[in-house]
Structures are given as C-alpha cells and as structure tokens.
Amino acid sequence: MLPQLTESLFTFASCAAVAVYVVSRGERGLVHWLVIGLMGSMMLWTGGLAVNQVLATLGIFSGNAFLVCFLGVFAIPPCWVMLAATYGRLRLFAEHPGLIVAMLVPSTLSDLVVVTNSAHRLFVRDFSLVSAAGGDDFSFAGPLFWVTVGWAVLLWSLGTAIYLGLAFRLAVGGEPSRGLGLGFAILLPLLAILAIGLGLSPVKRDMTPMALGLSVVLLFFMSWRHRLSETLPLARRDVIEHLSEGVILTDASGLVVDINPRAAEILDRSAARVRHRPVAQVIADLDVEAESLLHQRSIDGLLAGGPTLTLELETDDDRLVELSAACVRASDGEPAGLYAMLRDRTEQRRYEHFLLQSQRLETVAGLSAGIAHEVNNPLAFVRANLNHVQGAIGLLTDRIKELGGDEQAEGDELRLVVEESVEGIDRISRIIERMRRYSRIQDEELESVSLNEVVEDAMRMAQLHPGGPLALELDLQEDLPALRASKEHLIQALLNVFVNARQALSGQHDSELRVLTRRVEDGTEIRVRDNGPGIPPEIRSRVLDPFFTTKPPGEGTGLGLSISFGILREHGGTLELDSQPGTGTEVVMHFPADSDS
Q: Nearest to residue 570, comparing CAs of 489, 473, 469, 471?
C-alpha cells in the first residue's frame, strides 16, 4: 500500500507545484486556465486515491474518497483535449465554439451522474464494491459506468492524438529530439497501462499515477513552461488575427509555430503548410534571395538581441512585400523566438507611382499651357507670312521671265521651300495641340458612353480589323454599364495605346493583339495585350513620362501614353502597364464604378 500511496502523493505534489507556479505568474490567458484546470482535476483524482489508501490502511472505507477520484477522472479529459489543441495552435475550438459545448456537456453529465449515484445507482452499484474489486473485476459497474468512462477515454485519446501529431511534425521538421521527447511524455501513461495489462511489468500494481506524474513533469519542462512564458497573451486572437499586416511567430530555433490569416494570404500558403518550417525557407517562398539575407544577419543574431531586420522582397508576381523581423523575449528576458511582420506594399507602390506621374503631368500641364499660349501667336504670324509668300511666288515667276531667267526651275524651288516650311509649321501646331491635352478636359459636355463602342471606334481609326496584318482577338463583354465621360477623349486615349501596340508588333511575323472589356468588382476595364518584345526593365518606370520615346528623332514626340494617362486620370480612372521582356505588354485602362452613368 505504501508504494501506491507514494506514487499518488508524487503525482499530487507534481500537479500542485505546476498549478502554484501558474497561479503565481499572474497571467490569465486561456492556456493558463487550462493548465490550472488539468492540474486541479489530476489533484482531485490522485488526492482521492491517496486519502482512500490511507484510510484503507486504517481499515476505514470512504465512498466520498472514491467519488472525488471519479470527479477528477471525468474533469481531466476535456481539459486535456483543449490544452492539446491550444498548444498545437489549432483553431478548431476558436472557429467552432459549439464543439466546446458538445465536449463539456457529456463530461459535466458524467460528473453529475457520479455525484448523484447514491440516488440512482446507475454509475456504480456500491462504492464499497470498488474498494473490494480486483484489477479485472468490474462487478461494481452500473449501466452508465462504461458510457461515462468510454467518453472520458475518447477525449483523452483525441488529445493524445493531437499531441502525437505535433510531436511527429517536430520530429520531421528539424527538431527530432524535442519531437521524440514530447511523444514519449505523452505515451508514458499509456505505456504503463499496457505494461500492466499485458503482464509485462515486474510490478503488479497500477502504475498510472506515477506515470502521469512523470508525464506532467516532462510536459511542463518540455512545452507548457514555454507556452506559459509567452509574451503574447490571449488577446492575439482578437488583435493579431485581424491585423492588416501578416504576423509570423517562431520558436527559439527559428521554426514557425503560428501565422495569422493575413500572413497566410501574403505567403499564398495555408497555415498548416507553413508551421514547423524554418522561417528563412518560408520567406524564400516569396523571394529566393531573402533566405540568404536572413541567414547572413539573422536567426542567431536576432535571437541574440540584434537590431530589427528589415527587407524589401520582390515576388515572382511583381508584388512588393516588406519584412520586419525581431526577437520575442519571455518574461524572464530570455529569447523565446522571433516575430516577422509582412506588409504588402504593392498597392502603396502603385499609388505612389500614380501620384508621382500625376504630379509630373500637372507640372507639364502648366508648362504646356504657357508654351502653347506663347507660341501660338507668333506661329500664326509665321503661317500667315508663308501664305503671303505662296501668293507672291506667281508675281516673282513673272518677273524672272521678263529678265530672261528659267522661271520654271526658280518657281519650283521657291514653292518647295515654302511647302517644307508650311509642313514644319503644321508639325509644330500638332505638337502644341498635343501639349494642350495636358490641361483638364476642355469645356466639353460629358455624355453616356459605351465602352465597347469606344473600342470599336478606336480600332477603326487605328486601322485594326480582323484579317489584317496582325492576328486580332476581340473579347468584348456585353451589358457593360455606360460611362459618364468624353467619348472623343476616351477614343484618343485608346487610340494612342493601339498605335503603340501596332508599332511594337511591326515586322513581327506571329504578331497578336488581344483586346477585351470586362466588368470587375470596383468598375470596368479595357485590357490591350500584345505579344511583342515587351518593355525593357530599365525604362519601364519612364514610359509614361512626357516626351519620353524610344523612337528615332522625327518619328514620335513621346506624348501618346502620357496623354492617355492624363485622360484616364481626368475621368477618375487609372492606366497601368504590365510588361516583361519577351512576353509582350498589357495595358489596363480601369474606370471606377462611380463613373457609371
């Protein structure tokens, strides 16, 4: 009897020590309450066993001691399952709170059956029979005994399975010793029961209390102590889970232990695929070069208290992600792991680019308006003088004839000089007219405009049609909402895009141009995609700049796309380019929903 009493007292003392430690810390998160609840339940069980064993040595029987034992036994499994789920970072109970109720109600009914057993005898027929029963003698069992015990065993097995799954992931995820140790701690009580049941144990008594005591001690030092020392309280579910920034948490070895939904979205990976992987490998999924950068400065340096690491990552799909990583310390000041913040800066970069482009155009707009005003007047004088010169050529020809000269040759030469001058003046006029387009849309009434009609008119003006020199694919969605816009200006904006695409495809045998219109979530779009050579990366940021062109002198002014950008801006829309060398260019003209008529 003394060894059994010693084992029960050992388990009781171990559980009490853990409970006192948790209570003394002052934190009151979910994991703390679950540990306290589990330790309290195990103390009820082993305390009842110890009292019963002491009384038995004195020849005294106490049914209340057995009642306390069973109350503890039925309170242990739900705490065990929820603690396993919390430690394993499972969102099962957080996302489905009804499962907690479904689990606690049968356990509560089991305790109620035990407490009221004297009135109905459905759990055990007589507690005195329990004391007299042997290891395989269950003659004391009532009709509900196996139901309640079976439910408790089911919950205990579920919690054990969760812990074993976590141990397996640790073992194959870079922490074999920790995974094997956790698995052994979890299986220790089960191994003790099997050893007794199969007759493999040299000790012919129930070793479960001792095995549970050792299991509690191992779990406390291997896992619970670290979780109880977390610097992040339960508020993470209310705050971190709903942040617009991604959060990655690692343990002290740099293995990911949890991520919030935004981080999973940025990484384009489920939480299950990310957990228990080295954080450097997870970040490498975004940008391969980032893994080496993380390793150079990183894991060891950050855990040693180094400065916050900040990186900008360029993803394969042209997203810009900012990474900030730093050490997370426990309450005792020791490094407990790392945190990494992920911020998707793609939209911000796009907005900054749009704002910069708009500011450039505003500057050029003011300059253009002034130049157009100042140049137009003297240009008109020059044009009028050239017209006068053309009228005087006839008189000059007659005078040359009177003097006996070759009036035909002299007249032709003068006419050619004047025509070239007029052509130059006309070209200057066209450039000035284009510069005037940087000003706001002229006093022109906005009308209800069909986006598909704009596409068709612009294609006709650009001389693009099926059966032409380039393969043309049209995909115009029907029933698009009409826009409140200037049709003439929208045609001009799209015409500039078509002209650029046609010039990019000139001389290419397999040239293709795809044009589509679509209703999107926040408005409507026109997409124009060609399979030309694309835009070189070094000039991609300048293609919308005014007067920037790659064409030879005299073949372009560099105003086409800038004018299109300005027109879209005046209509509240945006113009964006997506281009990779060798894969072609796609121009997206987006019109917001509030521009619908």
A: 489
Q: Do the first three CATH levels of 2-228 and 235-344 match, i.e. the same topology?
A: no
Q: 585 pairs with which residues across the strands?
A: 530, 579
Token pair recorded at residue 133: 């029963």
**Residue 462 dihedral angles phi and psi, to the nearest 5°:** -85, 0
| Neighbour-count burial for 461-498, b at 16+ CB within 10 Å, e otherwise | ebebeeeeebebeeebeeebbebbbbbbbbbbbbbbbb
C-alpha 517/C-alpha 146 separation (Å) is 68
* Whether domain 2-228 has CATH 1.20.1260: no
Do the beta carbons of residue 79 and residue 104 sit within 8 Å? no
Q: Which DSSP state fits 594?
A: G
Please report, in angstroms and rounded to a whole number, the separation of the first and last CA atoms in the chain: 90
What is the chain's Cα-based Rg?
A: 41
Structure-token pair, residue 350: 């796009």
Count of beta carbons in the 10 Å neighbourhood of residue 353: 13
Q: May I ask the CATH architecture of the domain 235-344?
A: 2-Layer Sandwich (3.30)
What is the average per-residue pLDDT within 209-225?
74
pTM of the model: 0.46
| pLDDT tens for each residue of 576-596 | 888 777 778 898 999 988 766
Token pair belonging to 596: 């619908």
DSSP 124: B
333: left (phi over 0), alpha (psi -120 to 50) or beta: left
pLDDT band at 229 (very low <50, low <70, confident <90, very high): very low
Phi, psi of 324 (to 5 degrees): -125, 130
Per residue in 260-293, is it b (16+ CB within 10 Å) or e — as a string? bebbbebbebebeebbbbbbbebbbbbbeebbeb
**Residue 495 pLDDT greater than 80, yes or no:** yes
The three-state secondary structure class of 509 is coil
Q: Are 516 and 475 in contact (CB under 8 A)?
A: yes
Q: What three-state secondary structure class fits 442?
A: coil
User: Is the confidence at residue 438, as pLDDT, over 60?
Assistant: no
Residues 595 and 573 sit within 8 Å (Cβ to Cβ): yes
Provide the β-strand partners of residue 586.
Answer: 529, 578
Count Cβ atoms below 10 Å from residue 403 Cβ, excluding itself.
7
Instruction: Answer whether 290's CB lies under 8 Å from 310's CB.
Output: no
Give the type of residue at 594. D
DSSP symbols for 214-252: HHHHHHIIIIIHHHHT-SS-GGGGTTGGG-SSEEEEE-T
- Confidence band for 374, pLDDT divided at 50, 70 and 90: low
Name the token pair of 453.
Answer: 């009609």
CATH superfamily of 447-595: Histidine kinase-like ATPase, C-terminal domain (3.30.565.10)
The rounded distance, in Å, linking the Cα atoms of 37 and 81 is 12
Q: How far apart are CA 560 and CA 546, in angstroms?
A: 8
Q: Delimit the domains of the chain by residue range.
A: 2-228, 235-344, 350-436, 447-595
